[in-house]
Amino acid sequence: MNDLTIAPGPGIPGGLVIVAADLTERFAKSSGPGGQGVNTTDSKVQLSVDIATRSSLSDAPRRRVLHNHEHRLDGTVLTVTASTQ
């Protein structure tokens, strides 16, 4: 897995790089409709990062992420899921 580069945008004017070692990648079968292939192939990926331990985030952005995305966190871990059906 490579480092994750996030382009500059609101809240991160300089962009952000999350090193691959800080990311956890997990593959699984997607649920729901999608034909025979959805049950036999890994069609969902989850990418997780522990916001509290991210060294590239200074204290102010870290607090902002933990506060603004509290409903999406499992403790301090942010997980993004992408799947095909």
Kindly state the percentage of residues in helix: 10-25%
Cα-based radius of gyration, to the nearest Å: 15 Å
* Helix and strand run: EEEEHEE
Tally the structural domains: 1
Gross CATH architecture: 2-Layer Sandwich
Report the strand count.
6
Give the CATH class. Answer: Alpha Beta
- Which sheet architecture does the biggest sheet show? 4 strands, antiparallel
Q: What fraction of residues sit in β-strands?
A: 25-35%
- Report the mean per-residue pLDDT as an integer: 82
Protein name: Peptide chain release factor 1
GO molecular function: peptidyl-tRNA hydrolase activity; ribosome binding; translation release factor activity
Family: Belongs to the prokaryotic/mitochondrial release factor family.
GO biological process, one term: rescue of stalled ribosome
Give the arrangement of secondary structure elements:
Elements lengths: L3 E3 L9 E3 L4 E6 L15 E7 L8 H10 L4 E2 L2 E7 L2
Antiparallel strand pairs: 1-2, 3-4, 4-6, 5-6
Please explain how this structure is put together:
The chain is mainly β and 85 residues long. The chain has one domain: Double Stranded RNA Binding Domain, CATH 3.30.160. 12% of the residues lie in helices and 33% in strands. It is built from one helix and six strands. The mean pLDDT is 82.
Key traits:
85 residues; mainly beta; Double Stranded RNA Binding Domain; two-stranded antiparallel sheet; 1 helix
Give a short synopsis of this structure.
The protein has one helix at 59-68; strands at residues 4-6, 16-18, 23-28, 44-50, 73-74, 77-83.
